[in-house]
């Protein structure tokens, strides 16, 4: 009994002293980072109230402003800080691993009056066994490795698929196939508040192929097929939606170019943080899909081994049927970023970034955001 207690104490001590530990055939890793941000923001139509999602990071559709509020605000936060825990075990020649990660973003709970306390939220929680992955992680339709190195939480938000959700994924070489959690977002006939429907029995299907060139460039091609569904006391309608996406990471000497292009019909929440819905209901209550497309390009230049900058342009457009959606729906969004990052030592980065974003509704209403952001990040 004493020996068992000593073994547990030794394992706990090892975990406390190192981010990586081994117990038997299982390897444990603790990771994450601490990140502090200071954001000076100028909203063209008045800043959203404190705690609003737009005050945490750039989300297309949240910058139209609050009339009557001041236009210039400053926000200090450490909410992007995150921690994760991973295990990896060799079980009879099979690789078994688990991963869980949490951060503190997006919540409206807590406040900035005294303690700045915010609840943790789940980002990833999955288990992998050989070629199979089951649990919540990045959608197979998204390639997070192609995201630009920006200080903003997402960076190029309107130009990329960005979804984490529970799924079952099979990987074989460069091919990936997944069934993922379905969720339909719709615009009511004539416009109005977003309708969200979780009805239906058909999961979203994603297929993806990853490949490399001899020059070191990495590319992905992904396809999405999904059923849009609403079934309640007022409506009973289904239709199909689809999307295709291409991403690339291209080395240029010590520098690199990252890019993405995505288009589809009924993609909805998969693109631009759900800036546009997947469909709209017509006068008969039937779903009519909304087409959309977007993309980004980012060039990262290394000034030397410690200093670097990224220059990013991002855009999105939805093809709304105004006769059905009305004029108050989101139509197009774009943003641009330029930053300067410095890593005095490898785990630590300090930087400054300027971003400009403009969102436009179908009726021509606009919102603009200018933001200067300072960040300090330490990778655990």
From TrEMBL:
SUPFAM superfamilies: Porins. Keywords: Signal. The keyword Signal applies. InterPro entries: DcaP. Residues 1-23 form the signal peptide. This is Porin. It comes from Shewanella colwelliana (Alteromonas colwelliana).
């Amino acid at each position: 009994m004493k020996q068992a207690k000593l073994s547990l104490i030794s394992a706990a001590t090892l975990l406390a002293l190192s981010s990586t530990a081994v117990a038997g055939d299982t390897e444990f890793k603790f990771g994450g980072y601490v990140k502090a941000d200071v954001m000076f923001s100028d909203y063209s139509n008045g800043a959203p109230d404190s705690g609003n999602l737009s005050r945490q990071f750039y989300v297309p559709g949240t910058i139209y402003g609050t009339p009557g509020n001041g236009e210039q605000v400053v926000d200090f936060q450490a909410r992007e800080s995150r921690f994760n825990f991973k295990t990896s075990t060799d079980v009879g020649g099979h690789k078994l691993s688990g991963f869980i990660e949490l951060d503190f973003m997006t919540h409206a709970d807590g406040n900035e009056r005294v303690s700045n306390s915010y609840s943790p939220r789940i980002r990833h929680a999955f288990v992998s066994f050989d070629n199979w992955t089951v649990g919540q992680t990045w959608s197979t339709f998204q390639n997070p490795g192609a995201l630009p190195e920006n200080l903003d939480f997402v960076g190029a938000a309107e130009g990329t698929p960005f979804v984490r959700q529970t799924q079952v994924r099979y990987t074989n070489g460069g091919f990936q196939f997944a069934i993922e959690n379905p969720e339909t977002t719709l615009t009511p006939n004539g416009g109005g508040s977003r309708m969200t429907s979780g009805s239906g029995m058909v999961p979203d299907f994603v297929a993806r192929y990853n490949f490399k060139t001899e020059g070191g460039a990495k590319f992905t091609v992904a396809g999405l097929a999904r059923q849009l569904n609403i079934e309640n006391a007022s409506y009973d309608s289904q239709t199909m939606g689809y999307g295709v996406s291409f991403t690339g990471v291209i080395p240029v000497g010590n520098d690199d170019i990252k890019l993405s292009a995505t288009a589809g019909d009924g993609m909805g929440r998969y693109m631009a943080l759900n800036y546009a819905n997947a469909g709209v209901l017509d006068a008969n209550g039937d779903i009519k899909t909304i087409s959309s497309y977007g993309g980004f390009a980012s060039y990262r230049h290394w000034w030397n081994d410690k200093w670097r900058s990224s220059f990013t342009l991002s855009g999105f457009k939805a093809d709304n049927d105004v006769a059905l959606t009305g004029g108050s729906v989101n139509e197009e969004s774009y943003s641009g970023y330029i930053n300067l990052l410095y890593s005095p030592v490898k785990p630590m980065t300090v930087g400054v970034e300027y971003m400009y974003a403009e969102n436009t509704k179908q009726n021509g209403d606009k919102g603009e955001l200018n933001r200067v952001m300072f960040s300090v990040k330490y990778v655990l």
